[in-house]
Specification:
alpha/beta, 43% helix, 25 strands, six-stranded antiparallel beta sheet, globular
Length: 979
C-alpha cells in the first residue's frame, strides 16, 4: 500500500439527499451483467467495452430532461464494430442506441440496453472540390468542420447553437438546423450523399452508382417494402399535398415522408429517410455535404421591443429585407444571459415584458452590404423600439466584437436560462414552428398558456422561420409538478396543431418528449406509414425503440431525471455537454459534464449504498486525478461552470493534515526547494547522458508505487536539462521599461537542446533591449512563485502563503504598480493576474489591483515588435497556444509574434489543452497522451520549420506528443531580430 494514500472518505458527499426514485438500483452496483460483458468483450476486445457502474452512470445523461441507464457501453472504432454489435443484438433480442456528442434535447442519445459511443473514433474532415463539398465523419463537431471549410470561404448549411459540441452524425440524424438554415439550408437539402449501416448490417453508400443493385441483393424485402409505401403515398393526392404542406415550415417530427416523394429508388428514399431518423434506421458512418458560400461581411443589430408579440410582428419586414438571421429573445432570456461573460450587466434590470430581435445580414461584398444596410434602415424607421437600459443602442453595427457578443448571448439561451433555474429543478426545452406570418399570434398564445399552467418560461427562437423555443423548469421528484407539466404539454400540443397547424418539433427531432403526440400532428394515416417504414427497415426493432414511435400516451413522463443539489460550483449544470470537446480527459476517463453527472448520482443514493461505494471507488482517478485543472471547461460553458476548480477542491479534501503541512513548508522554504530542484534536474540530466533513461524510470516508478502515483512524477525522456544557476544581467531598475519576472519553471528547467545559444531569460532581456524597452530582473526572485504549484493541487495553505508573497514582492519590484510586470510563462501570468486573488488578504488584494501583469508574448507583440527589425524568417511555423492564453485572450498576440518569425503560421484545427499542467503530465502521462493525440496527428501530417508556444511545460508535453522540438516564440523572436 502506498505511504500517502488520500484521506479515506474525503470524496463522499457531505450530505446525501437520497434515496431518489430514479437512483441506479443496487443490482447494478457491479456494472454490466457478467454474461453480456463477457460476450461483448470476446466479440470486440476489452478496451471497447465499458462496464463499470461509473461508466454506465456517466453515459446515462444527455442534454435532455430524461435519464436511462444502459446495461453496457461499447466504444465502436469502425464500421466492423458497429456491424458486429448489430449482429449480436439481432441474435439475442437486444436493443442498440447510438450516441455521439450527447447534446440531444429529448433523450435521443440514451438507451436502456447496449449504448454505442460513436464520437471518440469518428472524427475527421476531408475538404473536396476546393471546399464546394466536404466529407465529414459523424463524430466531428460542426465548429471543427466549419474551421476546415473557412479557409476556402465555405460553410455548412446547418448551424445549430450547440455547434461547439454537437457532431455531424447527430445533426443529420435529428435534421438539426439552427439560426439560418430554415428549410433550405438544413441537412435534408444540403447532403450530397451519406454512408450508413442498416440494422441488418448492410452498408450503403448512396453515392455509389451500384448502391441500388447491391442493396436489392442484400435486402430485397426492405427494397420491396419501401417501394410499396412509395406507390401508396403517390396514389393518394390528398396525402401527397399534406406531406408537402408539412415541410413548407420547419418540421422534424416523425420520419421524413417526403423522402418517398423526392426519391425514385430505394437508396434515394433511404438517403432522405435517414435524415431526422434519430438513429432508429441505422448508423450514419460518413456524410458528404454540399457547402455554401461563407459571406463574411456582417451587419448586425440587437433591437429591443416593449413585448414579445411586438418583436415578433417586426419579423416579416426583416425577412423581406433579406436578413439571413432574425432571432427572438424574451425578457427572461435576456436577463438570464447576464451570467454570460461579456453581456451588459444592466440587462438584469430589463422590464419583464421586454423582448429583442437579433437581426443579421450577411454579404459577399461591400456593395451588397451597403444595400442591405439601406434596407435595414428603412425597416428601422417604421419600428417603435425601446431603450430601457443604458447599454441598448438599437443600431446596426459591423464591429466583430460587438456582433460576437450578441451571438454569444443568443446561443447561450438554453444554458444561461437553465443555469439560472431554481436548484433541484429539471429543465425541459421545447421547440415548435408555426407559419412565420402567425408568429406574433403564436407568441401571445404561448404566453397565455404558460400563465394558465403556472410557468414563467423563457422564450427564444429562429423568428425568421416561425420557429420558437421555450424552457420550462419543474421538480421531477414532485408528482404534482410532473402532473402540471403533463397538463401543459397536452394543452400546448393541441394549441400548436389545432390552432396553428404547426410542427411540434421544428429542429430538435421528435425524441421521447413528443413521440406520444406524433399522431396528433400527422393524423392516423401518415403515422401508420411511419410505423410501417420502421418495420420495413428494422423489422426486429433493434434500433432505438421508443425514441420516435411510442404508443404509450404517457411516454414523455417516463424517465424524467431528478436533479439533486451538488456542490455550488457544479449545481447550475444542465448537462448540455458544451464543455466536453475542450476537455483534455474526454477520451481517457471523464468529462466535466460526466464529473457532475456522477456526483449527482452519488446524491441520489442512500448512505452506505453499494452503488455509492462503487462510484466513489472510481471517482478519485476517473474524475479528480485525471482532471488537468486547466478550466477550459469554464470557457466553453455559457454560464462559466469551472469543473476544474471543483476538482481542485476535491484534491484539497483528499489531503491529509500531514500533506497540507508539508506543502506549506515547501512554500515557506521555496528558495531551498527551487535550488534543490534545479540540482536534481541537473543530476538527472547527467545520469541520462551516461546511462540513458532506464535508471530514472525505474527509480521514479518504484517511488510512485511506494508513495503515491499522484504525488511522485514519472521520469520522461523529454524533461529538459537544468537552467543556468544565475539569471542573466539586466537593465538597471532606473532605466527599465518593465520588471521582468522569470517564472520558477524557467529558473529550474532549461530550454530546448537546439536553443542552447540563449536561454529564455537571456532572449527576453536581449530582445527587449533591442527594441529600446529594457527590462529589469529583481535580484530576489528566487523563492517566489505564482502559486500555481500549490493551487493546481489543492494545497490551500501553501497557495495562500505564496499568493501573498508574490503580490507583496511584485508591489515592491514595480514601485507600487508604476512599472508593468512581464511574466515569461502564460500559466504563471494567469496565476499572478487572476488566480491568486481569492487567496489574498484584504490589504494585498488592494495592492494587486494596482499591478499591471503582462504576459511576455503580449509584451513582445505590443511593445517590442513595432521597434524591431526582422532580419531572418523561417518558412513555416505551427503554434500551440496554451489554455492559459485562452483564459487571458492572448492567442492573437502569439500569432502576431510568430508571423514576424515565419512566412506561414498555422494553428491546428484540432488544437487542445496538452494537459501537461505543470507536472500532471508526469504524474499521469496517459492524460497528456490522450489529450494531444488529435493535435499531434495534425501537426505530424506535414513538415514545419518551427514549433512554437510560450510555456515550458506545455512545450515539453507537445515534444512528447509529436517528437518535434517546441520552443518559446520569444526565443525565435530574439533569433529572428539578432544582428
Amino acid at each position: 500500500m502506498p505511504l500517502l494514500e488520500p484521506k479515506p472518505g474525503a470524496l463522499r458527499p457531505r450530505t446525501v439527499t437520497g434515496p431518489s426514485p430514479d437512483r441506479v438500483p443496487e443490482r447494478m452496483a457491479h456494472g454490466t451483467p457478467e454474461g453480456l460483458r463477457d460476450d461483448l468483450t470476446a466479440l470486440l476486445g476489452a478496451d471497447k467495452v465499458l462496464w463499470k457502474v461509473s461508466d454506465l452512470v456517466r453515459y446515462a445523461s444527455d442534454a435532455s430532461p430524461y435519464r436511462f441507464v444502459p446495461q453496457v457501453v461499447v466504444v465502436a472504432e469502425d464500421v466492423d464494430d458497429v456491424s458486429a454489435v448489430l449482429s449480436y443484438a439481432h441474435g439475442r433480442g437486444r436493443e442498440v442506441v447510438f450516441r455521439a456528442a450527447g447534446t440531444s434535447l429529448n433523450g435521443q442519445a440514451q438507451g436502456e440496453d447496449i449504448l454505442v459511443d460513436v464520437r471518440r473514433h469518428w472524427s475527421g474532415v476531408e475538404v473536396l472540390e476546393e471546399g464546394r463539398r466536404a466529407r465529414i465523419r459523424p463524430g466531428t463537431t460542426v465548429v471543427r468542420a466549419n474551421a476546415a471549410l473557412a479557409r476556402y470561404g465555405r460553410v455548412l448549411g446547418p448551424d445549430p447553437a450547440s455547434a461547439i459540441a454537437c457532431t455531424l452524425g447527430g445533426v443529420v440524424a435529428n435534421n438539426a438546423s439552427g439560426m439560418t438554415a430554415g428549410t433550405t439550408r438544413n441537412s435534408y437539402r444540403t447532403l450530397s450523399s451519406l454512408t450508413f449501416v442498416l440494422p441488418g448490417g448492410t452498408v450503403v453508400d448512396t453515392a455509389d452508382p451500384l448502391a441500388d443493385e447491391e442493396l436489392a441483393r442484400a435486402e430485397p424485402a426492405l427494397c420491396a417494402g419501401l417501394m410499396k409505401i412509395k406507390r401508396e403515398i403517390e396514389a393518394d393526392p390528398e396525402l401527397v399535398a399534406r406531406i408537402r404542406a408539412k415541410y413548407e415550415i420547419k418540421n422534424t417530427n416523425g420520419y421524413r415522408l417526403d423522402a418517398y416523394l423526392d426519391g425514385t429508388t430505394p437508396v434515394e428514399i433511404l438517403r432522405g429517410l435517414m435524415v431526422g431518423s434519430e438513429g432508429t434506421f441505422g448508423f450514419i458512418s460518413e456524410t458528404v455535404f454540399d457547402t455554401l458560400p461563407l459571406d463574411r461581411l456582417l451587419s448586425t443589430a440587437l433591437l429591443f421591443f416593449p413585448s414579445l408579440p411586438a418583436a415578433a410582428a417586426a419579423v416579416p419586414a426583416f425577412n423581406a429585407a433579406g436578413a439571413l438571421a432574425v432571432e427572438l429573445m424574451d425578457g427572461n432570456t435576456l436577463r438570464a444571459s447576464v451570467s454570460v461573460a461579456g453581456v451588459p450587466a444592466d440587462w438584469a434590470a430589463l422590464p419583464g415584458d421586454t423582448a429583442a430581435l437579433l437581426v443579421e445580414f450577411r454579404a459577399p461584398d461591400e456593395g451588397a452590404q451597403e444595400e442591405y444596410e439601406r434596407r435595414a434602415a428603412e425597416v428601422l424607421a417604421g419600428l417603435e423600439l425601446v431603450a430601457p437600459v443604458a447599454s441598448v443602442t438599437n443600431a446596426f453595427t459591423r464591429d466583430p466584437a460587438v456582433v460576437a457578443g450578441y451571438w454569444k448571448a443568443r446561443k447561450a439561451f438554453v444554458t444561461a436560462v437553465g443555469g439560472a433555474r431554481a436548484s433541484g429543478t429539471t429543465l425541459i426545452t421545447e421547440d415548435f414552428a408555426v407559419p412565420p406570418a402567425r408568429l406574433a399570434e403564436a407568441c401571445q398564445a404561448l404566453l397565455t398558456l404558460q400563465a394558465e399552467h403556472g410557468f414563467d418560461a423563457a422564450v427564444a427562437g429562429h423568428a425568421a422561420h416561425g420557429n420558437l423555443h421555450f424552457l420550462l423548469a419543474f421538480d421531477a421528484a414532485k408528482p404534482a409538478d410532473v402532473e402540471r407539466y403533463a397538463a401543459f404539454m397536452d394543452a400546448f400540443c393541441r394549441l400548436t396543431v389545432e390552432r396553428f397547424d404547426g410542427s411540434l418539433k421544428a429542429e430538435h427531432a421528435t425524441g421521447r418528449n413528443i413521440a406520444p403526440f406524433l399522431e396528433l400532428e400527422w393524423g392516423p394515416r401518415a403515422t401508420e406509414l411511419m410505423w410501417r417504414t420502421k418495420r420495413v427497415i428494422d423489422p426486429d426493432g433493434v434500433l432505438a425503440p421508443r425514441i420516435v414511435l411510442d404508443r404509450d400516451p404517457d411516454a414523455h413522463l417516463r424517465g424524467l431525471k431528478t436533479i439533486p443539489e451538488v456542490e455550488a460550483v457544479g449545481d447550475p449544470c444542465i448537462e448540455c455537454g458544451f464543455c466536453e470537446p475542450t476537455c483534455p480527459s474526454q477520451d481517457l476517463t471523464t468529462t466535466p459534464r460526466q464529473r457532475i453527472v456522477l456526483r449527482r448520482e452519488m446524491m441520489r443514493q442512500s448512505p452506505g449504498s453499494p452503488v455509492l461505494d462503487g462510484l466513489l471507488g472510481e471517482y478519485g482517478y476517473d474524475a479528480v486525478d485525471t482532471c488537468a485543472g486547466d478550466s477550459t471547461c469554464r470557457l466553453a460553458c455559457p454560464v462559466g461552470i469551472d469543473t476544474g476548480a471543483l476538482m481542485k477542491e476535491f484534491r484539497h479534501r483528499r489531503h491529509t493534515p500531514r500533506e497540507e503541512r508539508a506543502a506549506e513548508l515547501a512554500a515557506r522554504g521555496f528558495g531551498a526547494v527551487e535550488h534543490t530542484a534545479r540540482l536534481a534536474v541537473a543530476a538527472a540530466d547527467a545520469v541520462t547522458r551516461r546511462a540513458g533513461d532506464a535508471p530514472l524510470r525505474a527509480l521514479t516508478g518504484a517511488a510512485r508505487k511506494a508513495v503515491r502515483p499522484d504525488l511522485v512524477p514519472e521520469w520522461l525522456p523529454q524533461i529538459p536539462g537544468a537552467a543556468a544557476r544565475a539569471l542573466p544581467p539586466s537593465a538597471p531598475r532606473a532605466r527599465a521599461a518593465a520588471v521582468y519576472y522569470p517564472a520558477c519553471v524557467n529558473r529550474i528547467f532549461g530550454g530546448p537542446d537546439d536553443a542552447a545559444d540563449a536561454s529564455l531569460a537571456e532572449a527576453v532581456v536581449a530582445v527587449s533591449a533591442r527594441a529600446g524597452k529594457p527590462v529589469w530582473i529583481p535580484e530576489d526572485v528566487t523563492g517566489t512563485c505564482c502559486a500555481t504549484i500549490w493551487h493546481s493541487k489543492g494545497y490551500r495553505a501553501g497557495t495562500e502563503l505564496m499568493a501573498n508573497r508574490i503580490v507583496e514582492a511584485a508591489w515592491g519590484w514595480t514601485a507600487g504598480g508604476r512599472l508593468p510586470l512581464v511574466v515569461d510563462a502564460s500559466s504563471c501570468t494567469l496565476g499572478i493576474a487572476h488566480e491568486v486573488v481569492p487567496y489574498l488578504t484584504d490589504d494585498n488584494r488592494a495592492l494587486h489591483a494596482e499591478l499591471t501583469v503582462v504576459d511576455s508574448v503580449v509584451w513582445a507583440a505590443e511593445e517590442l515588435l513595432p521597434h524591431l527589425t526582422v532580419l531572418r524568417r523561417a518558412g513555416s511555423a505551427v503554434l500551440h497556444p496554451t489554455c492559459s492564453m485562452r483564459h487571458l485572450g492572448d492567442e492573437a498576440h502569439l500569432a502576431a509574434v510568430a508571423r514576424a518569425c515565419a512566412e506561414e503560421v498555422v494553428v491546428p484545427d484540432d488544437l487542445g489543452c496538452c494537459a501537461f499542467a505543470g507536472d500532471r503530465g508526469m504524474l499521469h502521462p496517459e492524460l497528456t497522451a490522450s489529450a494531444t493525440a488529435k493535435e499531434a496527428a495534425e501537426v505530424l501530417a506535414r513538415p514545419y520549420d518551427l514549433h512554437l508556444s510560450a510555456n515550458r511545460m506545455c512545450e515539453v508535453g507537445m515534444d512528447r506528443a509529436t517528437g518535434r522540438s517546441y520552443r518559446s516564440v520569444l526565443l525565435e523572436l530574439e533569433r529572428a531580430t539578432r544582428p
